[in-house]
Amino acid sequence: MRVTIKDLAEVCGVSAGTVDRALNNRSGISEKTKRKVLKAAEEMNYQPDFTARSLVMGKTMTIGIVLFDLYNRSFAQLMNAIELKARERGYFVYITLTDKKPENEQMCIEYLVNRKVDGIILLTVNKGKEFDDYLIHLNTPIVTVFNYISDNWEYIGVRERQAMKEAVDYIVQKGYKRFMYVSPPLLYKGKSNIYTQEERFCGFMEGLKTNNVLDEPIVIKKANYLEELQAYAFTEESRTAIVCSTDLYALEVMNFLKEQNISIPKQAGIMGYDDIDMLKYVTPRLTTIKYPIVQIGEKAVESIINKIEYGEYIPVPLLDYELIKGESI
User: Fold this and answer.
1) What are phi and psi of 49, to 5 degrees?
2) Does residue 230 sit in the same domain as residue 146?
3) Rounded-to-integer distance, Cα 99 and Cα 67, Å
4) Within 10 A of 217 (CB to CB), how many other CB atoms are there?
5) 218 or 25: whose pLDDT is higher?
6) Which of 35-39, 58-62, 139-143 is predicted least confidently?
7) Of the candidates 133, 204, 107, which has an alpha carbon nearest to the alpha carbon of residue 164?
8) Quick one: residue 35, left, alpha or beta (phi over 0 = left, psi -120 to 50 = alpha)?
9) One domain for residues 21 and 141
10) Straight-line distance from the first to the last Cα atom of the chain, in angstroms, rounded to the nearest whole number
11) Could you tell me what percent of the chain has a pLDDT over 90?
12) Residues 94 and 149 in one domain
């Protein structure tokens, strides 16, 4: 049977309140009594009753995570950062995956709310006033990451637009005049929340404009983007820069070019975005944008716990980035 606070109180010859003070490191008892209670708790293998504690505290000490998937290594790194920071603050996490489907996302949110999580860190594909109103009526603290919904929720993001614009500046300095942009998520513009991907694309187009690139870029939005590359002629005389909205697309493009014996970067340059950890195993080193994925996770946890415990989010300005200059451009 589970050992209770009452059992510890009887063994130690003290009140249940004294045991509670000892277990939770509260004042009002002597060090001698505290040591006696903690020793008994260890010997009797006492385990806290979190359900009872949540009723008393009004909190379950849990945070829900609604995530797209774990295929992108950045999301795995994000989850690690969130879990570590939450545990450091005394919270545990529930992880749910949506596969980027709006209906799955709402099912995940309702699952977490029904389990009385204290707050939710949300990577959303939903958007609009109706969805915003739905979240408000849940009466649950929510921090959004990457995809913005509205000012009703604290948003943790990166200066995506400026990052991609700086990437184009760098590519133009390398002598490229022809550009391609690979981003299958753009196919869902207007249908799904792809805020981050839209910001990156806007930065790309702004970069071309400010650098007076006259040739219209080829924008590839199809899922089978490699098929479109097959019909394109890559030459040293007119090198083409292939800018990809994530490293995963960039790596697929790199493999394709290698299979076609197209020289990188003499005939075609490749630019990624994310700086996923597996890039250290790739040759040539991919030129990409690195953003502080660990810091994003930590800031999200700190902001939502502050909201849970003190009623206010910690405002987080857009985070910075770093241009990683590899050999693929």
Assistant:
1) -90, 95
2) no
3) 8
4) 17
5) 218
6) 58-62
7) 204
8) alpha
9) no
10) 65
11) 78
12) yes
Is 119 inside any structural domain? yes
The CATH number that applies at residue 301 is 3.40.50.2300
Do the bridges between strand 240-244 and strand 62-67 make them parallel or antiparallel, or are there none, so unpaired? Answer: unpaired
Average pLDDT over the chain, rounded to an integer = 93
Nearest to 143 by CA among 204, 63, 220, 214: 63
Q: Are residues 275 and 262 in the same domain?
A: yes
Residue 53 lies in a domain: no
174 and 277 belong to one structural domain: yes
Buried b (16+ CB within 10 A) or exposed e, 148-161: bbeeebbbbbbbbb
Angle of helix 16-23 relative to helix 31-43, nearest 10 degrees, comes to 90
Q: What is the domain count for the chain?
A: 3
Which residues, including other chains, have CB under 8 Å from residue 218's CB and lie 6 or more apart?
179, 180, 181, 228, 232
Residue recorded with tokens 């990409």: 288
Predicted pLDDT of residue 45: 86
pLDDT band at 19; cut points 50, 70, 90: confident
Band the pLDDT of 114: cuts 50, 70, 90: very high
Q: What is the pLDDT of residue 5?
A: 83
- Looking at residue 65, its amino acid is I
Q: Is 258 domain-assigned?
A: yes
The percentage of the chain sitting over the pLDDT mark of 70, rounded to a whole number, equals 97
Residue 29: per-residue pLDDT: 87
DSSP string, 103-138: HHHHHHHHHHHHTT-SEEEE--S--SHHHHHHHHHH
- Looking at the structure, do residues 225 and 148 belong to the same domain, yes or no? no
- In this predicted structure, what is the pLDDT of residue 49? 65
* More confident: 52 or 301: 301
Q: What is the CATH number of the domain that holds 43?
A: 1.10.260.40
Domain assignment of residue 141, yes or no = yes
